[in-house]
Structure formats: structure tokens, C-alpha cells
Amino acid sequence: MATINDLILRIGHCKRKNPRGAYIAPLHKQAKDAAWDYLKDYGLTIPGAEARESELSLELPNAGRIRLYGADNPDALRGIYLDEVVLDEYAQMREGLWSEVIRPALADREGNATFIGTPMGRNAFASLWARAESDPAWFSLMLKASESGILPAAELAAARQEMSADQYAQEFECSFDAAVIGAYYAALIQQAEEENRIGVVPWEPKLPVHTAWDLGIGDSTAIWFFQQSGLELRVIDYHENSGVGLSHYAGELLARKAKGWAFAEHILPHDAEVRELGSGKSRVETLQGLGINPRVLPAMPVDDGIQAVRALLPRCRLDAVRCGRGLEALRQYRRGYDERLKAFRGRPLHDWTSHAADAFRYLAMGLPEAAAKQKPITYPKGSYV
Fold it and tell me: pLDDT for 308-353, tens place per residue?
């Protein structure tokens, strides 16, 4: 509520021509549920203001506009300019959204950004908080329930009784150190850090490089690059992008091949065989045409894949820099939560973390020891990457 009012105030008094403001939540639906009623209730008290339901935007008398967006569709934010932006629940957003999309949109107008949300472990939001605390050019405010006085003591006591210590610390006391609630792999990633298995993991020229893909349709495609040395799995690189064709990803592989990387298997999910209506080709066929020879996994239960990842992670060494975005996604990949039933759902939450997590799940299920138990679909060898 406070940030919506601040956004209206700043855009409404902005002296630049056609000022633009944005409220961004992790998902477009979240933005509508959390902010649209507030934006209308407060914005329409201004004479001449108009709410456009189809666009989820508020038009102000000074030709200013405030619009709601979801971080799940970063392409909708590319190419626009912004004077003011609010990023709500920033801990749930893909790390590169700020540096690759939002920050450039603010540059021309020398705009301002407000980050709000609940901590979810030591992720990009935690790094941003640390920067804000140490940089006098930033304003920072942490509202712990025990200190703010906003909620009655009786309500806090009742919440303590009904929540785990980690849940309470994260949701009410703004703890960046509490475990991510419902996370599948956070403890295993933490264990890998404590055992110094996350750091510099160089490419080994004597070993072939394998890849595991999650192919997005209208959203991100994610690729893990890994090598096997005995029982140890060396995860040496990660690439994710959206809004580009398969030729982009083939180019990423060719760029690495030019550096000497010798590729072996490329593991794809079962839906890579589905033919697209426009071209009549499957993505397998498109990739083959680009010189990539895949191995397509059969359909497998998600729960089996999650267990396979849990069994695999203790054997992994992961490059902290090149795999940084993918690692952050694995840390935050978690079960969905049903607010009505006050219980975790049986399936993972689909958000920005899903692409990296799904690709790693295919990696775990597609390893030779796992593949030996399956009947994968293979394709003829030719002149491939």
C-alpha cells in the first residue's frame, strides 16, 4: 500500500514528459492480486485519472502512466523507459532481471527503484540489502514484527505457536538466514558450500562435456553444462535466456566448442518431440538441423526427478560464478503453498526457478547410471556438435 501511494505521488508530480511507473511482482497474476485494487482506489481519487482494466494501468492527468507487470515475462519490459519502479517480493525474481532489463530502462530518465519483500535465504535480495546498508546513496528500512509495533503482541505469540522457527524468522523477523520455506534443495546447496564444493570448477580438456536442457515455449530455456569424473559430477557452466530461437542456444554451444570443448550427450525432456504448429517440426528436428544430436528422455514423474537430484547433489562440484544464476534457482526451488488450505501443495511452484531446476532434474535422470534403467529415445549420429 505504501509503495503504491509513493509510486502514484512520484509519477503524478514528475516533471518529465510522459512519465512512466511500473509495479512488478514475480508473476503477473500476483501483481494484479496484490496491487491493482490499491492502484485504483488511491489513483482514482485524482481528478482526471483513468484506470484501464485490460492493461492494468493507471493514466494520470499529467500524461503519466503506472502499469503492473510480472517478472515472469521479462520481454514485456524490454525496450520501455521508466521513471519509477517498485519490485515487490524481489527475492522471488530472477537475479538478472534488475541488471539486464530494469536498470537499463531507468537509465535514460535517471529513474528510481524501490525493492520490497520478504527474505528468502542468502540470495540476490540479501546482497542488495547488504549494499543498501553500506551505501549512503541508498535508503534501507527493515520492519521486524518484534520491533515495528504494527502487529499486536498476542498475534505474534499465536503465529510463533503455529509456525516453525524458520518460517517465523523469515516471515516476521526478516531473517536472511532462515531456511527457504518448502525448498527442495536449499539444505543440500548449503552443505555443498560448507564442504567447499561450490567455487572454481574449471573445464577439464580431457573429459567430454554433456548438457541437460529445459526447453521453454514462450519463456526461458535453461542449459546445464557438466563433466563426469568417476562418481564426481563437475557442473562447469549454466546458460539461460528467453525470447530467442533455438539457433541462439546452438550458437552458445558452438562458441564453447571453438574454445576446445568436446561435446558428448545433449539431454532433452520428452516434450522436445512435440511438433510445433507453425513449422511442423519438433524441436529435436530443429536442433538436429542446427547440428545438435540429442537424447530425449521418456516422460517421468516429477517426484522421481526431485529425488534423483537430491541423491546427485552430494556428488557435485559447481562453479560459483558461471553457474551462479542456476545455483540461486536451485536454492529457491520450492513447493507451492495453498493460502486457502494453509498447506504446501504436492507439486513445485512454477516461477523463475523452474527452468534451471527442471533442467537439473533432466540432468539427474539422464546420467548413464540413471539412463541404464530407462529406454531413452536416441537419434542417428551425424556431423553434430
Answer: 999 999 999 999 999 998 998 998 898 876 655 555 667 898 888 8
Please report which confidence band the pLDDT of residue 381 belongs to, taking 50, 70 and 90 as the band edges. very low
* pLDDT tens digits for range 242-269: 888 889 999 999 999 999 999 999 999 9
Classify residue 230 as left (phi > 0), alpha (psi -120 to 50) or beta: left
Q: Check: pTM over 0.85? Answer yes or no.
A: no
Distance in angstroms (rounded) separating the CA atoms of residues 5 and 21: 12
Give the mean model confidence (pLDDT) for residues 54-71: 96
Type of residue found at 67: R
Nearest CA among 95, 113, 93, 94 for reference residue 105: 113
Residues in the chain: 385
**Cα-based distances in Å from 132 to 21, 137, 177, 299:** 22, 8, 18, 45
Cα torsion 70, 72, 74, 77 to 10°: value is -10
**What domains does the chain contain, in order, with CATH numbers?**
2-117 (3.40.50.300), 145-181 (no CATH), 187-371 (3.30.420.280)
Least confident of 6-10, 80-84, 126-130: 126-130
User: What distances in angstroms separate CA 98 from CA 31, 43, 86, one per listed residue?
Assistant: 17, 26, 11
CA distance 134 to 137: 9
